[in-house]
Design a protein that fits this description.
The chain is of the alpha/beta class and 219 residues long. Helices cover 17% and strands 26% of the residues. The chain has five helices and 13 strands. The strands form two sheets. Strands 6-5-4-3-2-1-13 form a seven-stranded mixed beta sheet. Helix 2 links the parallel strand 4 and strand 5. The chain is globular, with a radius of gyration of 16 Å. 41% of the residues are buried.
Length: 219
């Protein structure tokens, strides 16, 4: 399985000859990303915020008539022309022999999200190709669960909206993750001190890998 990171919380996962794209967003978007994103034959959207769901890019990807798109009801209601397959926490489905589990996710709340920006539905995904389980948490704070994975894709920017460094470590231990790949730290409004996080995690013997934009990793 190969994992490629893009801005914020976007990843392209290649496995068994298929490409699964998670949360192609608007933040720091560049047209050149589409060269790889158009390979996707499966798109997973966690929630409606534009840093996770950029409709214009998705429309271009959808010119690949074989692409399957999955998201929750709140996103589908906003963009009915794009999203027809609705999922919810607890769902599990097969995509070309790859098992995809839909998980719960709890987006943090701040007054700046009041109104149309508030997240009422949010999901994560566990992609299991029979060898490796990769868990994309979406934007979430810590919550009680029994999800298990090998690789955890977790937000680290905190600010009351998602997990920070400390919570991510605890969350990862609960999932049994052998590797953490951080995400959701590209927004300049919510700065992250990568140097301090790397130092803290090294001191605690945490296995992690920060991926640069468009950098990939075989897991």
């Amino acid at each position: 399985m190969k994992i490629t990171r893009y801005p914020q919380s976007c990843f392209l996962i290649e496995t068994q000859g298929h490409y699964i794209l998670i949360d192609p967003g608007l933040l720091n978007f560049e047209n050149e990303f589409l060269n790889e994103w158009k390979k996707a034959d499966c798109i997973l959207i966690t929630h409606k915020h534009t840093d996770h769901c950029y409709p214009d890019a998705i429309k271009i990807i959808c010119r690949n008539t074989k692409v399957k798109i999955y998201t929750n009801k709140e996103v589908a209601n906003l963009f009915p022309e794009l999203f027809r397959t609705i999922v919810k926490p607890g769902d599990k489905f097969q995509f070309e022999g790859i098992t995809i589990e839909v998980t719960n996710a709890v987006h943090g709340y701040l007054p700046l999200l009041k109104g149309s920006n508030e997240i009422n539905e949010n999901v994560g995904y566990i992609i299991d190709d029979g060898v490796t389980r990769v868990y994309h948490t979406s934007d979430t704070i810590c919550f009680k669960n029994d999800y298990q994975c090998d690789v955890l894709l977790s937000p680290i920017s905190n600010h009351g909206l998602v997990m920070g460094s400390y919570e991510t470590i605890l969350f990862a231990k609960e999932t049994g993750a052998k590797l953490i790949i951080p995400m959701h730290y590209d927004n300049p409004k919510y700065p992250v001190n990568q140097k301090e996080i790397k130092k803290e995690w090294l001191e605690q013997n945490i296995n992690f890998k920060f991926l640069d934009c468009e950098e990939n990793l075989d897991v």
